């Protein structure tokens, strides 16, 4: 998953001047680079690679089958939080509103293009050397598409509410909420719309046909009984209903995490064959980056923008950290309270409000810790590989997280498709040495993927080569 840069350069300002739209010739204050944002981005990309490639052997770090929150479930909100922080910093440096709008629209289109190309289905199994997509089955939603939507909405709010902000005011910890009240008003509208649809939409009975030619159930029609509203269970929630109606069931993700639930497979929480008596919905597709859940995901970016505003307006390190930590803890407590009181469960697939609070609170605390270590205590050298990955997040996302580089390497084999360099390294250097596939795969991902791409990104950084969007 990638952040994929929401700022026009690799220099994130630690202290930034407020450009006046009415005075484009006004000089900007020279700024110091915010290394913590690059490192946080790099950490999130590394986490994505870890959970994607090692999650099969270590399901406790993979996506939760339905309710709950595992390590993998923090990746998407972390990216959206980072996008929000970067929006606040980057757009303050663009004095022309028209220029800012053009940049935002262009970057949104780039994100959509790469999202559909990478996750639309063409390169759907690079490790198996299978490519191509039936346009009737193309997947429109995905990670970059969700980032594109959140980025577009929040960036436009940031651009068109600049006149409502008092440029001469130096807000305190709480008045900063009033200064950017339009952002929170948009957030409240997003939350109201999401809650109204998810709890108020009637979900009728539905059916689907298995189109996977490799499945033993190919061509079989399954019926799912619902006829309810306000349910948050896998078969009858409004999120899936909206996606089936708008996107079409054939354009949704065909390997949802719920297939690892106890109701679907006896190997739960591992992947495995579906039970013979598994409910019909276990066979169905579900879009984890769908329409309604992506609307809710905008909230994660709005919270990130607020943290960027704090960085801009509060000049002291201690004042920033106090605000960030207090808000992060408040979000965590609110989200966990909603979950454990059974008011609103934590659910990444539905992107529930409690999930927004818990993951945004976690992002706030992680970012605060990195900021303290890196930008205050200047311990940057410890995190250099993560910083390099953060500077070239799109490159590492495409080549490592999406498996394009591994797919290319696997395309060169001797006699049998399994006789490749990647498989040889996995088997003989890691799994064979530790005599454990679980430990071997974990170490392979850490050293042969994350650290390897960190060093590659460092070489690219040395020569000033970056893949920007």
Average pLDDT score? 86
Along the chain, the helix and strand elements come as HHHHHHEEEEHHHHHHHHH
By oligomeric state, this entry counts as single chain
| SSE-based structural type | mainly alpha
- Rg, Cα atoms, Å: 23 Å
| Structure summary, number of beta strands | 4
Q: Give the overall shape.
A: globular
The count of helical stretches stands at 15
Low-confidence stretches: 1-30
Distance between the termini: 14 Å
Helix content: 40-55%
Biggest β-sheet: count, sense, barrel?
Answer: 2 strands, antiparallel
Classify the beta-strand content into a percent band: under 5%
The largest sheet has its strands arranged as: 1-4
What would you say this structure looks like, in words?
The chain is mainly alpha-helical. Helices cover 53% and strands 3% of the residues. The chain has helices at 35-54, 75-91, 97-119, 143-160, 175-179, 181-200, 238-246, 291-313, 317-340, 353-376, 384-391, 393-401, 404-410, 421-434, 437-462, and strands spanning 202-203, 206-209, 221-224, 228-229. A two-stranded antiparallel sheet has the order 1-4. The chain has a two-stranded antiparallel sheet with strand order 2-3.
